Amino acid sequence: MRNFCERARQRGDALLEGLVAVALLGVVGLGMSYSLGRGLVAQKFAKGQSLMVQEIRAELLNAGMPSGCAATGTTTATVNFNLATGLTAQEATRTCTVQSVLVQIGAQERDAKLPLVKYESQVGTLLGPGTLTLGN
Questions:
Q1: What mean pLDDT comes out for the span 27-38?
Q2: In angstroms, rounded to a whole number, what is the distance separating the alpha carbons of residues 3 and 64?
Q3: Using CB atoms within 10 A as the burial measure, which of 3, 66, 92, 113 is most buried?
Q4: Is the dihedral of CA 55, 59, 65, 66 positive or negative?
């Protein structure tokens, strides 16, 4: 009789251990799925910002730095970028300021104009809204 009681109690212990193991496995699975979801969201934001940088780079390569800049002073324009399907970007503000600089090489001095170009766009990040700023 004593042997039967010990076996019955052991069966209940095994069932309880199994339930605890399933619960722990569920918690670990939920944690992994949450972590994967946050990683995918971070990748989406990084991809959007990377596409924006590529568009700005392409515009600068095709049109050149001083394109759209006035001969003197500051010029501000709004630029729209076509990103990949499903990714939208707000308008970017392009600010161009032309500065006069004195270039000296050896004994020769020359006055040159240096365009300072800056792009700013409001973007979403994991920590909330932010500003993507690119400039020289």
A1: 93
A2: 90
A3: 92
A4: negative
Burial class of 105 by CB neighbour count within 10 A (0 to 12, 13 to 18, 19+): exposed
CA atoms within 13 A of residue 53's CA, in its CB half-sphere: 11
Q: DSSP code of 72?
A: S
Helices (H), 1-136: 2-63
**Residue 28 has what pLDDT?**
95
Which pTM does this prediction carry?
A: 0.55
**Amino acid at residue number 11:** R
Tell me: the pLDDT tens digits for 50-86? 877 887 788 778 877 767 777 777 887 777 776 666 5
- Count CA within 13 A, CB hemisphere, residue 73: 3
Q: Are 85 and 66 contacting, i.e. CB atoms less than 8 angstroms apart?
A: no
